[in-house]
Amino acid sequence: MRIEKDSLGEKKVPKDAYYGIQSLRGKENFQISDLKEPAAFIYAFVKIKKAAALVNVELEVLDEKRSKAIVKAADEVLSGKYLDEFVIDVFQAGAGTSFNMNVNEVLANRANEILGGKKGIYQYVHPNDHVNMAQSTNDAFPTAMRLSTLALHAVATQALDQLIQSLRKKGKAFLPIATTARTHLQDAVPLRLGQVFEAYAVMLEKTKARLETAKQVLHEINLGATAAGTGMNSHPHYAKKMAETLSQLTGFSLVNPKNFVEIAQSTADFAHYSSALKNLALDITKLANDLRLLSSGPRTGLSEIKLPAVQPGSSIMPGKVNPVIAECTNMVCYQVIGCDAAVSYMSQAAQLQLNVMMPGIIFNLLFSLKIMTNMMTMLSERCVTGITANETQCRKYFEESLGLATALNPVIGYSRAAEVVKEAVRTETSILKMIEQKKILTKKEIETYLSIERLTQPGILKKST
User: Fold this and answer.
1) Which residues are catalytic?
2) What is the pLDDT of residues 313-345, one digit of tens each?
3) Does pTM surpass 0.70?
4) Which residues, at least 6 apart from 199, have a Cβ–Cβ distance to it below 8 Å?
5) For residues 328 and 311, what is the distance between their CA atoms, to the nearest angstrom?
6) Residues 64 and 95 in one domain
């Protein structure tokens, strides 16, 4: 062990630890979940510290020797080293002070080693004075929130694009297959199975566009705001240069906000993005529910499609296969909906110049992005790609659907068409056979006017006279 001191006194810190006394206090205080910040958030935070070291030396408020040591330490962490040194639970001190100091201490201790010093003796580089120079938790933590969300957003949209492409491919493959639509869970008008899957693809494309729009505001970063948005203890050019430097380090087009006081106290940008992510979960829930319905059976359900079998479905019923990928998809979506509710409550909990609930907000947001990304990849690769159509069953539904009578409206009128439906139900006869029996249309007219091509696109049926 080694002895370290802070404003509250002394504590023993593990000798080999790169974290220090303030990290240890946070680790001991917040033994809540055993969950630690994900690598994306750690990397975002470390990039901020690296950028600050580069900018502060350029502005001549930090010497080059210390700057280079901090940058080298940051690069080592960004290469994947020392990740187990970030020991703070995701449920921690308000605003994320514990985690900020954890980053400061890890980088300071490693920078001191680089300069020939020892861990715990901040002879050359101090966690607060040098690594945290011109920063506050109140501007560093929300900036890391923005950077990590943008990073995981890029991965999530790749998975979403893959899912959209898989659905569109099925839409093209299933386009010739006739079936019936259902509204109110009752038979409706004829429909192509391919139109069903193309509609799913378009639905997710629209949701992706909304998510991309919500992402835009996250490019505003408040580094330079320091504690309350006033910029106290930072160089007048620091904020602008930090946005430029971090843009180069991350590849994101980052800008300063119009008002630093506002962005320091409001987490509305995160609530907005979380809501858009929740809406994506709502759409995918609808998709998963439909896949479960359409594949229900195989003998006593709809059985229009067959989902790929990925595992046995029952411990007691031999041969049973369940739609487990769609079921898992539903669970993930419901979890994301719950996370969004947590983000909403935490976002409204701000007081005066700061929202101290930021650690909870970013945990829920990054967790949602992670499980949504993995779920969409799973749904695409282990389910949608392997879906096959039960063409015989689909054709049966098309031919027997009472919705075919809708096409008779321009021919015989709504009232008479309704009578045809009633008699078809009473006699358990298909609409097509009833039309032929009643001599409403000839066989040739049925083939011409009630073909799947005519019934699944705009047009008005008119009987020849």
Assistant:
1) 314
2) 888 888 899 999 999 999 999 999 999 999 999
3) yes
4) 171
5) 13
6) yes
